[in-house]
Design brief:
It is a multi-pass membrane protein. It comes from Pseudaquabacterium rugosum. This is Cytochrome b/b6 domain-containing protein. Its main location: membrane. The protein is mainly α. It has a single domain, classed as Fumarate Reductase Cytochrome B subunit, CATH 1.20.950. It has seven helices and two strands. It has a two-stranded antiparallel ribbon. The two termini are about 10 Å apart.
């Protein structure tokens, strides 16, 4: 190692609950969007599971481990501004947990899943069954979720390369390693 090399840093960030939540939610969304036919029982069960996962993650955001708590990463306007300024200056802005933009995306994605759960449930009730606008809203929310999930995945790869940390691997192992 030369004097300009920095040693690798490893931090245990994502607890098992967060990792299981993340990958189970990914599976629910991908199955419901691309494999299971809408209206099938499995589609509804996967929607219920996804909604339950989001509800559990919200609770975990208040009582969970340090980096799972919203207080650790909540994307305030100031945190977002400082993060964007550091990015513009190409300065390192390492965050053990979510960076402010990642946190914002996570919250938006969870809100979309919750809205899908609500609009999906509404379609099963006598009051809202067969309402065209509700079906269209549900579909638009699903499409928006897929677009933003794609942006989220791409951003994790790009930011991981810029920051020299494998963010996908970190979501599997729970450990972030900066090189």
């Amino acid at each position: 190692m030369t004097s300009t090399d920095k040693p690798a840093v490893a931090i245990r960030v994502w607890d098992p609950f967060v990792r299981i939540f993340h990958w189970t939610l990914v599976a629910c969304v991908l199955l419901n969007f691309g494999v299971v036919e809408e209206g099938e029982d499995l589609h509804q069960w996967l929607g219920w599971l996804a909604s339950g996962l989001v509800a559990a993650r919200v609770v975990w955001g208040f009582v969970g481990t340090r980096h799972a708590r919203f207080a650790d990463f909540f994307p305030t306007p100031q945190r977002i501004r400082l993060h964007l300024q550091a990015m513009r200056r190409r300065e390192p802005d390492a965050h053990p947990g979510h960076n402010p933009l990642g946190a914002l995306m996570m919250l938006v994605l969870m809100a979309l899943v919750a809205a899908l759960g609500l609009t999906g449930w509404m379609q099963t009730t006598d009051r809202w069954f067969g309402e065209e606008w509700l079906m269209e809203l549900h579909e638009a929310l699903a499409n928006g979720l897929m677009v933003l999930a794609g942006v989220h995945a791409a951003a994790a790869i790009v930011m991981g390369r810029l920051q020299r940390v494998n963010l996908v691997k970190a979501m599997i192992t729970g450990v972030k390693r900066w090189s």
